[in-house]
Write a structure and sequence with these properties.
By secondary structure, this protein is an alpha/beta fold. The protein has helices at about 25-30, 45-50, 55-70, 75-85, 100-110, 125-130, 145-155, and strands at about 10, 90-95, 115-120, 135-140, 155-160, 175.
Length: about 190
């Protein structure tokens, strides 16, 4: 876990810092289903729930603030992030809409999870933001993001194992099932 230099750690929020299953109960309630996280075989929950992308977008627009406010912390995320905060720069890069910045910051403050920057980009394409922040590694739960970031930036990505992100992984992506499995020493020492 010790590294030779401070790192800039890019961190997704939903499904990474928050529990991946936290979206399932409110979606079950809204769409009359009884699914579990194990049933979420792909990232696009509109397909999983048999609704249109537009219906999902409307639901998220209406329910997003409540969802983001009440999401539980993903296992030991808060402990690791508090531990890293003094040594490393923590930059949260999320597909959340920027209009959710207040509820996001309130959640971080309420859960006592430290941050240096929160960048809500309103898109799943995190490459531009990760490049802007010069991240040394990324923590993610969406397979497509992990593949794009590791390939374009040639950085390690720790991919939290979920039913919706299965598939073959290149060497720079490390599938993990726990925050305990994150190994910051895998980041090569380099000069900026």
């Amino acid at each position: 876990m010790n590294t030779q230099r401070p790192l800039t750690i890019g961190i997704d929020i939903d499904g990474t810092v928050t529990c991946p299953s936290s979206i399932v109960p409110p979606m079950n309630e809204a769409f009359g289903r009884d699914l579990q996280l194990a049933d979420c075989y792909e990232y696009n929950l509109a397909n999983v729930y048999g609704i249109s992308d537009e219906e999902f977008a409307r639901w998220l627009d209406e329910y997003g603030e409540r969802l983001y406010s009440s999401a539980p912390v993903h296992e030991l995320a808060d402990q690791f992030l508090r531990q890293w905060h003094g040594q490393h720069r923590l930059v949260y890069i999320s597909a959340r809409d920027p209009k959710h910045m207040d509820v996001t910051v309130e959640w971080f403050n309420r859960t006592h999870i430290p941050f240096h920057y929160i960048d809500l980009i309103g898109s799943h394409d995190k490459l531009k933001a990760a490049t802007k922040w010069q991240v040394d590694l990324f923590l993610e739960d969406r397979l497509e993001n992990a593949l794009q970031l590791s390939d374009a930036l040639q950085i390690p990505v720790f991919l939290f194992d979920t039913p919706y992100n299965q598939g073959a992984l290149p060497p720079l992506i490390h599938r993990i099932s726990s925050w305990r499995e994150i190994d910051l020493s895998l980041v090569p020492d380099k000069v900026r």
